[in-house]
Amino acid sequence: xxxxxxxxxxxxxxxxxxxxxxxxxxxxxxxxxxxxxxxxxxxxxxxxxxxxxxxxxxxxxxxxxxxxxxxxxxxxxxxxxxxxxxxxxxxxxxxxxxxxxxxxxxxxxxxxxxxxxxxxxxxxxxxxxxxxxxxxxxxxxxxxxxxxxxxxxxxxxxxxxxxxxxxxxxxxxxxxxxxxxxxxxxxxxxxxxxxxxxxxxxxxxxxxxxxxxxxxxxxxxxxxxxxxxxxxxxxxxxxxxxxxxxxx
Length: 248
Prior knowledge:
Elements: E1 5-9, H1 14-25, E2 29-34, H2 37-47, E3 54-58, H3 64-78, E4 83-86, H4 102-129, E5 133-138, H5 151-171, E6 176-183, H6 189-194, H7 199-207, H8 217-230, E7 238-241
Parallel strand pairs: 1-2, 1-4, 2-3, 4-5, 5-6, 6-7
């Protein structure tokens, strides 16, 4: 992957950072995008010294002007854009439907759906200009099934699959593949927040996974690498990485 460049939203922690490290180890230039400048700096410190060159940009994926200018800065710095991993997203706490608010709905959709849509708008012209490549969007196992009391999040992850399939068809003949990765329960800060302070809930949830364990962020990163580098005849696909949770 020498000379190739990937941009990763939500790239300063968890699955995003694990993916950034894996691509950098394989020689790619990596540009990470995150809202918090301090976390971006910490991520760059971890990426320092790996094979690929790295950069970080602080901003909001729901901000069109920020994304457009950032993609241009990435291209100016690294000479092109070949891959993108649209991974930025937020979760929803388990809340009964009547107690869910419009404000929370809007926040989830701005980041999880609008953010992916705007990111692809900003990325695809540069990927085309670089001779083609691949975009991977982060959905979730909840993009394939229903989960009670997290309807806003679940709907947003279903929406990402629809965006992925539609844009994949739009650019299939132009050398841009668009796929999704659908992680299950992965050992990240997000999981820690969901079961924080409740060891019983932690064990109960883990027992529901057919493989009997939580996934690792690096395991999802490997799926992203596969979709970008190796799955050259694959587009519009959602690769589920969930330990068997959604197996019918």
